[in-house]
Each structure stands twice: as C-alpha cells, then as structure tokens.
Input
Amino acid sequence: MPQLRKDPVTKRWVIINFEKSLGAADYKIPRASHTAVTCPFCPGRESMTPLELMSYREPNTLPNQPGWKVRVIPNRYPALQIEGELDRTGIGLYDMMNGIGAHEVVIESPEHNLGPADFTPEHWALIVGIYADRYRDLKRDQRFRYILIFKNNGIAAGASLEHPHSQLIATPIIPKRVMEEIEGARQYYYYKERCVFCDIIRQELSSGDRIITENESFVAYAPFASRFPFETCIAPKEHKASFGALEDSEMESLANIISATLKKLVNALGDPPFNYIIHTSPCDGNCDEYYHWHLEIMPRLTKVAGFEWGSGFYVNPTPPELAAKQLIQSISQPKKVVK
Amino acid sequence: MPQLRKDPVTKRWVIINFEKSLGAADYKIPRASHTAVTCPFCPGRESMTPLELMSYREPNTLPNQPGWKVRVIPNRYPALQIEGELDRTGIGLYDMMNGIGAHEVVIESPEHNLGPADFTPEHWALIVGIYADRYRDLKRDQRFRYILIFKNNGIAAGASLEHPHSQLIATPIIPKRVMEEIEGARQYYYYKERCVFCDIIRQELSSGDRIITENESFVAYAPFASRFPFETCIAPKEHKASFGALEDSEMESLANIISATLKKLVNALGDPPFNYIIHTSPCDGNCDEYYHWHLEIMPRLTKVAGFEWGSGFYVNPTPPELAAKQLIQSISQPKKVVK
Output
C-alpha cells in the first residue's frame, strides 16, 4: 500500500511508494520504453494491460479486443490504490494516511505514432468525452475529494510510454496546488463578489494582447504571469466550476480549441514536450461559486532549477505577449507521415 | 528591465525577461556550453566576466587576476537588476513591479573539472564563508526582502556552465515557497510555543530512522515527507533562524557535513544532477523566533510531470528510510582523476 505523508511545515502531501521502491542502483540504469513493436497500448495487445474500465469502440467489437477508438484501463503501477479504507495516523509530529485513490490511463488512440496535434477535432471530442465520463464515475466514490486529469507528452515531460495516453488520479485529499487557487479565488470573491477567472477572461478578451484563439464557448490565452515559455490556459467563457459539468453542446467547442491550440504549439515549436492539466473544482462542490475550471498547457522548454524550487517563483525568458503573437502567426508545417 | 508579475489567483510572482527574450526559434537550437578550453570561469580568463565583487585569494595576488580560491561576480545575465527603484503598478486586475534585485555567481573553485564531492572540507569552508559574507553585504540593501543561495549541479538540474558555481539572488519580495514554510512554522509556534524544525530534528535524532550523518553542530537527514528520492536536509541542531547568523565556530562543522553528505550521494548514486538551496529567514528578522535555517539537497533522479505540477503533491518511489540507509552504507569509489 502506498503511503501518503504530510510535511509538518508546508503541509504538502507526498506519496511514498513502498511496494515498488527504487533504491540507488535503480537510478543508474536508464529506464526502458516500448516501441510500436512491443507496446502494450497498441491494438492486438489488450491482454497485456489490466481489463478495461471503459472504451469507445466500433460497433460489434468486444471489450478488451481491438476495435476501440479510446480506451481507459487501471494503471498497472498505480500511485494510489483503489482497495482499502482511508486511515489517518501519526508518528510523533508526523501525519500519514493510507494511499487510497484511483489511477487510470486513457489510451487516446489506437495509433502508436500519432502526436496530440495530429488528432482531428472529432477525435479530440472522443478523448474529452471519455475524460468526462470517467470523471463523473469516479466522483461517485465518497472516499475521493479531488479528480485530476493530466497528460505528459514526451520523455522530457515525464512520459514513460510513447503511445499517446493521459491519466486520471482521484485523491483522498484536495491537492495543495488546487487549494492555493481555491483560496486565492475565494479571497477575490469575498472582496469583489465576482469570479476572478471570469474577470481575467473579460480583461484578456478586451485587451487581446495575450489571446491565442477563441471560439463560441472557450478562449485560449497566454497567462499574464506565465511561469513557462508558451504556457497556455484554455477556459470556458461562461462561469463553470467543474469539468464534470461539461455539457454535450460544449464538447465540440472544447475539442476544437484543444486541437487548434496544440497545432499552433507544434507549428511554432516543433514537437515540444509538454504537460497539460485540467484544474477543476473539488468533488464536494463547496467552491463552485468562485472557482472556474480550466486546462493548463505547459511546454517544457526550460529546466526548472534551484531558484524556482527554492523560491517558488519562476524566471520566464519569453514574455507571454510574444508567445501569443508567435502562436497566432505560426504556420502549419507539412503533416508528418505516419506509417 | 525585467518585470515581476503576480498571478492574481495564486499570488505567485514570475520574473519576465524583456531584454533577452527568447522566441519560438530559440528553443529549437540546443544551447552551447563551455569546456575548459573556453570557460569564462577558469583562471586566466577573469576579463571575460564582470568585475569581481569579492574573492578569497593567495597572498599578493590582485583582484580580477588569477590566484583566487573562491570568486564572486555579478551574473552577466541577471534574472533581476541591481540599478533602479522598486515601482509597483497595476494593469486592470494585474499587479507588477520593476525587476529590481541582485544576482551573483560564486565560482567555487579555480578547477574546472572538480565536482562538489571532490572539494575538501577546508575548501567547503571557503565556499560557505563567502556565501555568508555576500549574504551579510546584500542584507544591508533596504530594497531586498530575501536572499536566496542555491546551486544547480549538472545539466539536468539546470546548470548552464559546467565549471563549479553557485548563485545568490536577492529579491524585493519574500518568495512564495519561503512564505509557505514561514506560515507553517508560525502556526506551529503559536500552537506549541516551540520551533517546528527543532521538534523535527529532536524526533529524527531520537528515532534515527532517517539520519544520514551528524556532527557537533549539524545534522543531515532524509525528510519524513521527502518529495524526491534521496532528498536530504542539513540543519543546525540549535535554533538559528538566519544563515547570516552563522558563527565562525560553526563554519567547520557546516563545511564537514556538506562535504560528507555530498560524498555519500555521489558514492551511492554516481554523479547525480542535483540542486541545493539554503532556506533562511527573511531579511527583516520578524520570524526569527520560529524559523530555522536549513540546506535542502534535491537529487534530480525522477522527472517532475503533470501530476506534480497539477497537484503540488509528489510521488516518491524511494522511501526516505531506504535512502538514509543506502547513503549510510555507501562506499567511497576510487576518486576521479582530474587532469
């Protein structure tokens, strides 16, 4: 069972893996990755993964057989475990908790070699749709307080398998980084009686300096205080606290803007490693008045070093206004040929 | 002039570089590094760097000439600029500030090819001594609220030059990450009337499970809630809030424990990339009752990915008890030959 441990000073929680612990020797050996020849996420190798939790598939095809377009499986090496009870204990001044949670993998496409910018908007609608389905299902489990959806694209962004995939993790505590956003949004709301994200979006749309693209329901912009070069935020124009509240009528708009934004990033930067993360309100819905869900895209072009770790403030060599301008002007490259 | 910008939700500050901005094309070209043949930090090339602020050197040698043992220069590409006034302004709901501060480089040795584990304890005493001298000098500038001392070792840890060096950055605001520690320590102090760090050190020394090494004045331990494999904290055993209050009598103890700890890390892990950071109390001394300075060493063995960025909690595959045990048992490797 993994263990959740809390830092007594910063109150930051850490998951310690006791079952598949790595010792010093493990860090000297480069980790193996899979090519299409051995990849457990490719069609025809469904038996190499845990049984699927859900898939969108061709008519008349069976679960755990080829024919799927998007497929969700439990993570074989979960950061948190689904079985068991939450159990909080202390050792002296330290706090800890059983590592209960869920950890799922969304295999985004049967095609091993497609990058996220290669997916059609129609295919993005399937990915976003299955995110929402899994989100709503996990939310019913009373042990979970938060559901995090994210993608690591490229080795430098922490991906361990090259086949396109993203992940869902349900946690028994609200993560610190989310709490900070909630607390900031709450303070603003009590002072202004308005959602801070709604105000940001209004100001961005009105100035236009950092807008990358927009459509009927969503806007993509470079945040004013971007930590990373070409950092991008995609948010619903109307106030919506939870990703789980995504309506069918908005699905197409969201798929279109993700597709358009990732294409621009790839056009401008080649094939950059990146992470994206859906920031949504916690499961309890207590802050739905002032929280506003959004998708953060963080290209990993610079190294986070001692100064950032030590201070929590970031040095960004690319002003977000320049990033937005270059993304708008980026020209589509000849599409890569997938064999 | 760099610009400090504040995120309106999380209140995180970011430094945006407008003078040497990087556009999309700059991220496609790998950055050049220097070998010993062209290195501006090597003796004999002092004229390639800005004029030195301080050095410890052989008797009868001149500033900005060879003969130095440790040398401090202004950073040629500073994250923050020394000249100018603090000037806080807003644009709509956004806050920003002139990027005023200091950014210095400590060249730790004339030897290009020495790693930090190769330095003798006597040489570490020079490095630590010059840190303390620069710290006290910068602290006199009323514009600065915090002084951060850190080292990036190895490309993967963000070092852009291989010659051994560390950095000091003085900032006009107290960094967020430091504020979090201060706030946590303050809450504990008001509740218990004791320093949380003193209590942690007492508990660690008493259990012994995570102690790596100790001497008269300092202890090195693997934190209970370590974020990273082989993360290590070095702290004074007695309550001391500010690194600037380091006494001459403690210098040798500190140099010895840094040297011993880094040797153990190198013995156990080869030549791992790492960052270290001195966490000290802010310049104003307001929280000296409950803050306790310490040095954090973070080997960079795993990639920080979407989950960590999105949640602020970390998955650590190496339990700190295992890390401490392996560091204690690590055996010295034959010393590398430096030409």
The mean pLDDT of chain B is 89. Chain B touches chain A through 92 residues (CB under 8 Å). The domain at 40-329 of chain B is CATH 3.30.428.10 (HIT family, subunit A). The two ends of chain B are 42 Å apart (CA to CA).
